[in-house]
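4.2 Preliminary Data

To establish feasibility before requesting continued support, the project team ran the inverse folding procedure on a target of 243 residues. The structure was first converted into the token representation described in Section 3, and no sequence information of any kind was made available to the design step. The complete token record follows.
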């Protein structure tokens, strides 16, 4: 299985703390944030990675990681020239994805456990078109919330108004998709900036089979400067536990 790491985001709210380089290249304990993500992917058994970058700052990532050999990985790069959301970012990497399934990891997100490894340990193909990492949330109106029928996911509702949420279970930026199912589902899609959707929503619209696994630990997204201390603490905890 290959991994696609999404690292083309603008990170506008992080500019005060990280004005030039991509936020996922910020150093934590002597290593770039993205290095910790790649380490976890490698420990999960994934050594081939496609990193989606933007022309304005992708050179920071390319110059640091090159072809990935120094990190024990094979790394390739796809360029998202226009930021039209994660589904489009994956689409520009199509020619580099040649495995039956691939794992997607948002480049600014991390948990206190090796979530890619946990997800893969719980993933059983069983005719599935996607398998999601999920988490329970208190304020469902802030997230993409999944709707279940029995043990399968049948819909993802983005930021549902309070009182209308189908569950309290939200998506996380780590998931597995069947390559053919995803690219078939977006074949006629015209992506537009400002109308970004969670990638698995396209598979669901084609009646694809989707399940998930609920994660209950700590997590951080590098969305704003105040998240930096949270990331430091989380990474410190992982280093102490040798995770």
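Position-by-position output of the design step:
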């Amino acid at each position: 299985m290959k991994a696609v790491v999404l690292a083309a985001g603008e990170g506008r709210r992080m500019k005060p703390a990280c004005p030039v380089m991509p936020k996922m290249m910020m150093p934590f304990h002597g290593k770039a944030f993205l290095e910790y993500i790649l380490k976890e992917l490698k420990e999960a058994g994934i050594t081939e990675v496609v990193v989606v970058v933007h022309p304005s700052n992708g050179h920071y990532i390319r110059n640091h990681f090159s072809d990935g050999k120094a990190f024990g990985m094979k790394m390739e790069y796809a360029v998202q020239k226009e930021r039209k959301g994660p589904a489009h970012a994956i689409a520009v990497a199509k020619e580099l994805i040649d495995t039956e399934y691939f794992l997607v990891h948002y480049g600014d997100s991390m948990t206190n456990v090796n979530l890619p490894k946990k997800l893969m340990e719980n993933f059983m193909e069983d005719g599935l078109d996607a398998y999601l990492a999920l988490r329970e949330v208190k304020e469902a109106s802030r997230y993409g919330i999944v709707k279940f029928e029995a043990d399968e996911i049948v819909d993802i509702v983005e930021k549902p108004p309070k009182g209308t949420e189908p569950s309290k279970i939200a998506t996380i930026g780590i998931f597995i998709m069947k390559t053919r199912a995803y690219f078939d589902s977006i074949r006629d899609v015209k992506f537009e900036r400002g109308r970004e959707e969670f990638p698995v929503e396209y598979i669901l619209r084609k009646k694809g089979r989707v399940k998930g696994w609920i994660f209950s630990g700590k997590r951080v997204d590098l969305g704003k400067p105040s998240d930096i201390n949270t990331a430091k603490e989380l990474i410190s905890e992982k280093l102490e536990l040798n995770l």
